[in-house]
Structure formats: C-alpha cells, structure tokens
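Researcher: Sit down with what I've pasted below and flag anything odd:
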Amino acid sequence: MPSLKTTIIALFAATATAMPASVRLTPRQMQYHALAKRQQENAAEAGLSDFDILQFALTLENLEETFYRQGFAKFPAADFKQLGLDDQQISDLQQIGKTEAEHVGLLQSSLAQGGVKPVQPCEYDFKFTDAAAMVQTAAVLENIGVSAYLGAAPLLSDKAILGTAGSILTIEARHQSSIRAFSKQVAVPQAFDAPLGPRAVFSLAAPFIKSCPEGSNLKIEAFPKLAMDVGGGAAPAEAPAGEAPNAGAEGAAGEAPKAGAEGEKAEGAGEGEEDEEGEEDEEDEEDEEVGEASEGAVEARAEAAAPAAAGPGALSVGSNFRVKADGTSGSEATNCAFTSGGVFPGGTAFSNFTQAEGCQVPQGVAGITYVTLTKAAPLSGVLTDDMIVAGPMAVTIS
C-alpha cells in the first residue's frame, strides 16, 4: 500500500499535469503589447475619452462619405471607363462610397446611445479635377483610414466600442486593396500597415476641410504641413522626384497631372481636322491609343497617390528627396522619421535631415510610409507627438 507521502506527491503531479501550460509571448508580441500600453497612456494624457475617439472616427467617415458622393455626382461612369475600369470595377468603387455612408450611420448610433451628440459633416474642398484624380485621392483617404483605425484601437478601453472600430477597420482595408487593384498596383504592398495617432491623422485630413459647424470641431490641432519640395526635387543622382505633383493631401487632391489619354485625345482631334479624308481611320487609331494611355493613367496617378511628390518608383531605400514645412517649423528639424508597417522596434525608422540634402530613405522601410520631420531620433523607434516638427506626408517606398 502506498504511503501518505507518495500519495500526496502523486496528487500534486497529476494536478500540475492537468493545468494548462503558461503562455509565453514572443518578443514581437511583447513589442506590440508595450506599444498598445504606451498608446493608451498617450490617450489619457491627451484627455481623449472613448467617445472623443469615436467623434474623431466619425469626422473621417463624414469626410470620406462626402468625398465619394460628390465625386460620383460630378463624374459619370464613362469617365471611369476611360481610365480602364470595367463595369464591375466601377460598381465596386461606387459600393465603397455606400459603405462609407453606413459607417457614418453606425458611428452616429454608437455616439447617440452613449448620450453624446455626434459631430456634423464639415464643408470640404476636394479640388476635384477629373475621375483619375478622384481615384488617386480615394487611395490616399482609404490608406489614412486604415492607419487611423489601427492607431486608435489601442487607445480604446471599452470593448464594445473597440469591436465597432474593428469592424470598420477591416472594411477600410478592403477598400484600400480594391482601389490599388483598380489602379493596376500591387494589392498588398507590405505585410503590415502603419498605425498613426489622432493628431497625425488629422494633419493628413485637415487640408480637405474648409470649415465645420459650431460644436463639430475636434479638440485636435494639426501639425504644420509637410510637402515635397518640387523646386528642389530629389538629389541629382536619384530619380526625378521633382517632376511629380506637389506633396501633401491637398496637393494630391488638386494638383495631380492630367491623364495622358486626355492630351492624346486632343492631339488626335487636331490631326483629324487637318486630314478629313482619313478622319475615321485616325479616330479608330486614336481610340486605341486613348485606351492604352488610360490604362496606365490610373496607375501613374495612384502610385503617387499617397500624398507625396515622388513619382512612380522615385523613392527607394537610399534615395534622397527634399521637403518643405509650413512657416519656419522646419528650422527645428534634425531628423526625418519614416513610419511604416513592419518597422521594428517602435514602428519608425529615422535618418538625418538637413535643408540642403533633405531626407534619405533608411533601410527596413517599404510600401506605404508616413514621413515627418522631427527634432529627435530615439533608438526605441517610438515616434511621439512632442518630437514632431511637421508632417506627416505619405509616400510609397519601392
């Protein structure tokens, strides 16, 4: 018969075996946990409640809903067909606008149920020029939306509100990938998306907002605007970034180059007037040329879509480009910060900044990236509002 001691030892052993093994987080998971904890502390320091963050999300959704509604009212389906989009793609693009309207309704309902009056839509200026510019700007807005929700999620403490935000985030990501596919770009350019804090996101959205109704202004102040220095361009040895449109969300919306198809169409019309006998043949050839040009028009525009001055493929690791900040804010800057999905630790990589040389794209940065000027470059890779001098602006790093 076993002794009492043997029985007790056996009982403890059986109990230990039945208990689940302790979960060990990987170093990367620990980094995410630390980042989420810092963000929640930052939200508390900024005085942002869960409902303040929902109001912020509603401000962005109001902007996006109005953007699509006004854009589709201005440009008929035929304009998008000239860009190479088929009927299904045009329908899908219109459906994106409808889902933005549903996001507005959900956020309004969530705020009202919490006893909070939802913010009202503002007056906007999207500087619509043509359908191609609209698609380009849509790519900008959807990318900002993904980064906004991704950055706001860790700031929320209420799980129900977090669930609401999460259900919108996944759809915003689908919007982003769809528009990239419509634009003949890689649908998923990187393995991770980059989160942005409320102030950085508002700085990207602010150029579209002219004014807001009383009581609907957020208690968030935009950073000074940062743009590509078109006059300065890139360093001579690099790709001709200075040839692309002006940087910043405002420039992306209103200063995109005209589609090549439009110029070729006008040129073809002039040739037809000079030679009436061959007019029909020339028109047929012209239509083919327009189709070919228009297929690349969306691609060329959307590749520079993130509000940046760099043209297609102009920015790559090691390349230099010059930037300019509103007012004299740039004089404080010592570094360029590149916030991009998959940059560890901290989410941001830094390089030195000088007025003469501008910024150099550091190693480890790829895909859609947010550039800011800063007055510090912490080794932790953590970018905080207090060190930002100007920005952000969005660029695509190849």
